[in-house]
């Protein structure tokens, strides 16, 4: 069993507080979509450092925070690493088909235009 480090718990919206507009805003940014696609591809928790973004560390932190605060991802400290996971089941229950459609659209765009250079 993994436990969170005391005093390092991060706030997450409860499912009944997650709003479609905030989720869509979070997904509208190419860097945040890159994070979501990488987490979906992994199918497991990843440390922030395992998701390569061509931005500064502070900007990367901002993108992860927007995703967490909108309810798209869940973050938890495991030792010194901040681990990230999609809230796929919760998002599916709230907005059926949304995440799958967004991920499929991202795949189709990549096939059509090639990998994003962002």
Automatic annotation (TrEMBL):
Keyword Kinase assigned: no
Start and end residues of each HTH arsR-type domain: 12-106
Superkingdom of origin: Bacteria
Keyword terms, alphabetized: DNA-binding, Transcription, Transcription regulation
Pfam families reported for this sequence: HTH_20
CDD domains for this protein: HTH_ARSR (cd00090)
Matches recorded under InterPro entries: ArsR-like_HTH, HTH_ArsR_DNA-bd_dom, HTH_MetalResp_TranReg, WH-like_DNA-bd_sf, WH_DNA-bd_sf
Signal peptide location: none
Record has Nuclease as a keyword: no
Gene3D superfamilies: Winged helix-like DNA-binding domain superfamily/Winged helix DNA-binding domain
Protein name stated in the entry: Helix-turn-helix domain-containing protein
Species per Swiss-Prot/TrEMBL record: Streptomyces lichenis
Classification lineage: Bacteria, Bacillati, Actinomycetota, Actinomycetes, Kitasatosporales
């Amino acid at each position: 069993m993994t436990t969170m480090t005391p005093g390092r718990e991060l706030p997450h919206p409860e499912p009944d507080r997650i709003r479609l507009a905030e989720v869509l805003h979070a997904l509208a940014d190419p860097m945040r979509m890159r994070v979501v696609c990488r987490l979906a591809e992994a199918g497991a928790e990843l440390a922030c450092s395992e998701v390569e973004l061509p931005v500064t560390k502070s900007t990367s932190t901002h993108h992860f925070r927007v995703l967490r605060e909108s309810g798209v991802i869940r973050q938890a400290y495991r030792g010194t690493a901040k681990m990230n996971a999609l809230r796929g089941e919760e998002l599916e229950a709230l907005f059926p088909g949304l995440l799958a459609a967004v991920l499929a659209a991202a795949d189709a765009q990549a096939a059509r235009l090639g990998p994003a250079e962002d």
